[in-house]
């Protein structure tokens, strides 16, 4: 792993926002292209895939939309392609070291998952 170049804080925040938005939009585009009723919730550099048509508003809605088998399958599928989703969520994070290639890898993996 290489250390990212030092960037002024404003440039770093812009980079975070750009890469996070590219990832979230890419995930949403793939979901729409496959006609799935899933959502991607983004908060800054964090995004979470949820297997429900509307973003959950509370813990009860998260629990009701839970699909443990699908979640486990997606985690394993992505892990086999070098992408780690957070263990207790289907969440992705953009870090200061994230590159465009790092954004593309989960999109390629997710696209392959949806094509199966």
Q: Please give the number of β-strands.
A: 3
Low-confidence stretches: none
Q: Give me the side-by-side strand order of the main sheet.
A: 1-2-3
What would the principal axes of the Cα set say about the shape?
globular
Order of helices and strands: HEEHHEH
What is the end-to-end distance? 31 Å
**Oligomeric organization of the protein chains:** single chain
Count of alpha and pi helical runs: 4
Kindly name the structural category: mainly alpha
Relative strand content = 5-15%
What summary fits the major beta sheet?
Answer: 3 strands, antiparallel
Task: Bin the helical content.
Answer: 40-55%
Give average pLDDT, whole number. 91
The radius of gyration computed from the alpha-carbon positions, rounded to a whole number of angstroms, is 15 Å
What's the SSE blueprint?
Blueprint: H1 9-33, E1 39-43, E2 46-50, H2 59-64, H3 68-79, E3 91-93, H4 100-115
Antiparallel strand pairs: 1-2, 2-3
Helix pairs in contact: 1-4
Write a compact overview of the structure shown.
About 50% of the residues lie in helices and about 10% in strands.
């Amino acid at each position: 792993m290489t250390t990212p170049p030092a960037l002024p804080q404003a440039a770093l925040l812009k980079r975070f926002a750009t890469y996070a938005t590219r990832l979230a939009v890419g995930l949403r585009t793939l979901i729409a292209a496959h006609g799935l009723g899933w959502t991607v919730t983004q908060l800054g550099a964090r995004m979470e895939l949820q297997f429900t048509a509307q973003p959950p508003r509370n813990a009860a809605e998260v629990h009701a939309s839970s699909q443990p088998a699908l979640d486990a399958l997606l985690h394993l599928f992505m892990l086999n392609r070098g992408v780690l989703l957070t263990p207790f969520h289907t969440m992705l994070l953009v870090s200061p070291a994230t590159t465009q290639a790092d954004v593309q890898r989960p999109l390629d993996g997710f696209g392959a998952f949806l094509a199966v």
